[in-house]
Amino acid sequence: MFPGHLHLLPQTPQLHFLFTVIRNVETPRTDFVFYSERIMRLILEAALCMIPVKPFNVITPTGAVYKGVRPDDRGIIGVSIMRAGESMERVLREMCRGVRIGKILVQRDEASAEKVPDARFSYTKVPKDVASRRVLLLDPMCATGGSVIKATEILINEYGVNEENIIFLNAISAPAGLRKYLGRFPKVQIVTAAIDDDLDENMHILPGLGDFGDRYFGTIED
Question: Measured between alpha carbons, how far apart are the two ends of the chain, in Å?
Fold first, then answer.
């Protein structure tokens, strides 16, 4: 169904439970944050396993040599697609101490049928050396793929990032969005925790979980 650059987390009973909690409309914000961050940790661990390593030996307390490894010298930078992508920043900082994080705002044209990105309303702030790093692109939801496509175009065309150095980290995707994104950027790696059924007439993921950013940051309107 999808090329080999798409990596779906193992669909374990524990992951199924975590999604049951955060998809539930009755789940309070505190639980939504806690359990969604558990999913984010699994996604990040899977993504970090894709980072190349090099040999690095250490001496253990017994005096023996342990033939270990450490990440290569390229290093990583996180880039969150605002606003929902910012929800993944805390977990990234906890797992990768000292990591630098950039931001890309891609405003959508809500009047368009597919809510396509509107280039008139965008903002980008990333570290100057982003082109020489591996980029973890953060956005928990991928519906039509429009926002992540625009963000990836910005990184490649305006900042010189190599396509193969981008890993897109995502919690829930729609098949249409994945096909569109991978069709445009076949060398990008994607780590996702769930591939849902479809999109509704409003381009919302089904069954989905609603607006991730609103539920995470507590900005749901009554």
Answer: 39
* Domain ranges for the chain: 6-217
CB 127, CB 98: distance < 8 Å: no
pTM attached to this predicted model: 0.92
> From CA 6, how far away is CA 84, in angstroms rounded?
21
Alpha-carbon gap, residue 153 to 143, rounded angstroms: 17
Q: Decide if 202 contacts 144 (C-beta within 8 A).
A: no
Residue type for position 163: E
Stated as kind and residue range, the H or E segment containing 87 is: none
Closest to 74 (Cα-Cα) out of 135, 159, 137, 126: 135
Question: Which of 18-27, 105-114, 156-165, 200-209 shows the lowest per-residue confidence on average (mean pLDDT)?
Answer: 105-114
pLDDT band of residue 63 (cuts 50, 70, 90) is very high
CATH of region 6-217, choose from 3.40.50.2020, 3.40.50.2300, 3.40.190.10, 3.40.50.12280: 3.40.50.2020
Query: pLDDT by residue (tens digit) across 99-145?
Result: 999 999 988 665 555 555 555 558 899 999 999 999 999 999 999 99
Instruction: Give the pairing type, strands 53-59 and 65-71.
Output: antiparallel
